[in-house]
Structure formats: C-alpha cells, structure tokens
Design a protein that fits this description.
By secondary structure, the protein is an all-alpha fold. The chain contains 21 helices and no strands.
Length: 445
C-alpha cells in the first residue's frame, strides 16, 4: 500500500526534466479543439489560445510557484483550509472538482476512437474510461507522470511528421497565402474585441488550475517548479507553432470540411503515408490522453480526499485511508464524466461553460491566500467564492433561458459580473480587516 504522499504526489520527487515533460503534455490535451480553432480562425489561434496562457503561466512561475511548493500541501483545497477554514475548503473542493472534470477529454478521445474503429459514442466513452481508470487506480500520480513522459515525446513526434509532408505535397508560404481566407492570416482572425478579451479571461484558468498546483507540490523544490514552468512555456510555443501550421494547411487544402474538429485527422488522411499516419495518430492520442490522465486523477483526489475526506474522515486516521477514498473518487469521477459527455457532446461548449462558471469563484480567494497583505477573513473569502460562482452561473443560465446561449443580460459575458462580484466582496473584506487592525493598534496605544 503506497503512502499518501507517494500515491498523490509521487513522493514529491519530480526533477526538472520530468517536471517539464509532465507539465507540457498535461496542459495540451485539447488538440481536436485547437485544430477546430485553427481551421476556423487561422493564426489568431496563437494569439487567443496561446499567448494569454504563456502570460499567466509566467505570472504563475514568478509569483506563485515557489510559494506553493513551500507549503508542502497536496492540493488547492488544503491551501484554502489553511488560509481560511474548512467550509471554504469544501466549497473550493466542489469548484475544483467541476473545473477538473475530464469530461471534455473523454469526449474528445471517444470521438477519435469513433473515427478510427467505427464504434458508437457510448462504447467509445466506456472503453476510454476503463483504460484510463485501470493504471491510475493502481499507480496513482506516479503512473500519471510516467505516462506523461512518453506522451510528451509522442505528441512532438506526431506533429513534427505532418508538417514536412504537408509542405512537400502542397508547397510553402505561397500556397497558404493563395488558398487561405485573408482573415486567417490576421492576428484577430475576424473575431470581435469582446470575444478575444473573454478568452484572455478564460486563460486565468492557469492561475487556479489544480494540475499546475499539484505539480508544484510534487516538485523536488521551489526552484524546480519555477524554472520548470518558464522552460515549459518555450515548449508550448514550439508545439503551438506546429499545431497552428497544421491547422492552416488543413484549411487551405480542405476548404469545405463539414466538421472542423476533425481538421488534423483529415489533413493526415490527405498527406501522410501509412506508417507516418500511424505515428501522427499515436501522437494525437498521446496529447489527449496526457491531459485526460491528470484531470481524472485530480478530479478523483478532490472528490475522494478533499470532499469525502473532509466530511467523513477523522484527522487521526486521514492519512491512512485517503488513498482508498481517492480510488473511489476515481471511479465516481469517470462515471459522472461519461454522463456529462453524453449530455453535452461538445468539447468547446464544455470548456467555455466550465471556465466561465468556476474561475470567478476560485480566482480571487485563492490568489489572496498566498499573500498575507491581500488575505481576508474566512467569512469574506467564503462569500467571495460563493457569490462569484453563483453570479456567473445565474448569468449563464439567464442567457440560455432567453432562448440563445449568447443572449446574456446587457450583452455581457457571464465571467465578467462573477469576477466583479468576487472582487467587490474581497475589497469589502480587505477594508474591514484594515479597520480592525487600526482599531487594535489604537487600543494598544
């Protein structure tokens, strides 16, 4: 029986190369969604889906990575309980569980299996879940990291294969300029300013992403965590260049593709010989699977250890049985994810909905918890988390009730009012804290 620290964090032993490979592969699972975005909007994919994440990853590295590692905790709700209280930690656990549902990636991999083997969606979902559960259930985080290392190599090899073949078959820059819509070569891709800004806000996901926090907790030390994230940005930039280029070739060569999410597989069918095609498909599968592994494990850990655990386990026995609760959480998480994927069979819609609703609740209280001067009392932290989340959720639901998913009140995206409400409650809590401190100092005088 592995110890809690070994099962959940691989004994906090991640070296710099392993840290980089597991983080890079984990943060890039939405490859079919990236293909769809590149096909629809061209190089703006890099400006909208790449650049914001580099910026927030750099902020995370410079200001948070060492602080997170120094806490020696396990996951985000541990920090919320340490900084605030148990009630805030449980609410944070619920939001973390929603944020980390592997449903989009189970759906993505299942669609891919449908294409390859001709299975129906339900069978593909079940097979995906069983395969992923099996090694995570027995190996825990260490199994996740070991598979991530292999998947890191495969994802780069896969896209390194398809670009030369595309150039040899169709030509270089001139082919793209001639056959792409003009907007595909602009930085905005024809998207509105509000749409682009929303995706920058969704990139705030990086700061509250439990996978980033988990890998910082698992690093050998804070220096490994900080340097690892900064170096990972370079690898993400290289991979984004390859995926964007492949997306442009797909749009130029196959202009009337019925399902843009299949842009990369259809390009592979058009340009790759059998062996190279197999390498590319394996690379795509590895890219999706790397993120699916991590989200599933963090989701299971959050449900089993941080929700069930805080509600049921006595402190003196907690370290002895949290591994069991995490394994139970793994099974429940996959069952729920399969149900969600069947209910909302759209990867982009799942991403948008989850990020829009959860980030406004977690962002402000979690970021404040790492800086003493910005930390507020547990009461205000809980309220900021609760009402930030509920405001965005109600705004989103109102848009749907108006008969159109984008018909939001005042034409404002749901994330903005949620973050605003959370910030207002946090600012009120900070002001009350200052008043109490000044009153205390006055009494001492």
């Amino acid at each position: 029986q592995a110890s809690e620290e070994d099962f959940l964090l691989a004994g906090r032993s991640l070296t710099l190369p392993i840290f980089i490979m597991t983080l890079v592969s984990t943060w890039y699972g939405g490859i079919l969604g990236v293909g769809e975005f590149s096909y629809r909007y061209g190089i703006s994919n890099w400006f909208i889906q790449g650049l914001p994440y580099y910026i927030f990853a750099a902020i995370f590295a410079l200001f948070l990575a060492k602080k997170i590692r120094a806490t020696n905790l396990y996951i985000i709700p541990d920090k919320l309980e340490l900084a605030y209280d148990k009630k805030t930690a449980i609410l944070g656990s619920v939001l973390t569980f929603i944020l980390m549902t592997p449903a989009p990636y189970i759906l993505m991999l299942s669609v891919f299996l449908q294409m390859i083997f001709g299975w129906n969606l339900f069978v593909s979902l079940i097979v995906t879940a069983i395969v992923a559960i099996s090694y995570l259930y027995w190996g825990g985080f260490r199994a996740d990291v070991q598979t991530d290392v292999l998947e890191f190599i495969l994802m780069f090899v896969g896209f390194a294969v398809i670009i030369p073949f595309s150039i040899m078959k169709f030509g270089g820059i001139e082919f793209l300029k001639t056959n792409l819509p003009p907007m595909h070569l602009t930085w905005h891709g024809g998207n509105s300013a509000q749409y682009i800004i929303v995706w920058f806000f969704i990139a705030l996901w990086t700061l509250v992403d439990p996978a980033f926090h988990q890998r910082c907790y698992a690093a050998k030390n804070g220096k490994v965590a900080q340097r690892g994230i900064l170096i990972s940005i370079i690898f993400w930039f290289i991979f984004d260049f390859m995926t964007a280029t492949a997306g442009l070739y797909a749009r130029a060569a196959i202009p009337n593709l019925h399902e843009p999410m299949m842009a990369y597989p259809m390009l592979a069918e058009a340009v790759l010989p059998p062996i190279a095609k197999g390498m590319f498909y394996v690379g795509m599968l590895a890219t999706i699977m790397s993120t699916l592994n991590t989200l599933a494990f963090v989701s299971a850990q959050t449900l089993g250890r941080d929700i069930f655990g805080r509600l049921r386990i006595k402190e003196q026995t907690k370290s002895e049985i949290t591994t069991f609760y995490t394994k139970v959480g793994l099974i429940i998480s996959f069952l729920l994810s399969v149900a969600i994927a069947l209910l909302i069979p759209s990867v982009i819609q799942l991403w948008y909905t989850i990020g829009t609703v959860v980030i406004p609740g977690l962002l402000v209280p979690l970021m404040a918890s790492y800086f003493e001067r910005f930390r507020i009392t547990s009461r205000y932290a809980f309220l900021a988390m609760l009402f930030g989340w509920l405001t965005s959720l109600s705004w989103l639901i109102t848009g749907y009730m108006n008969g159109n998913a984008g018909n939001y009140p005042l034409g404002i995206e749901p994330m903005y009012p949620g973050i605003l409400v959370s910030l207002l409650i946090w600012r009120t809590g900070l002001a009350r804290k200052t008043i109490h401190v000044l009153a205390f100092l006055g009494e001492k005088e």
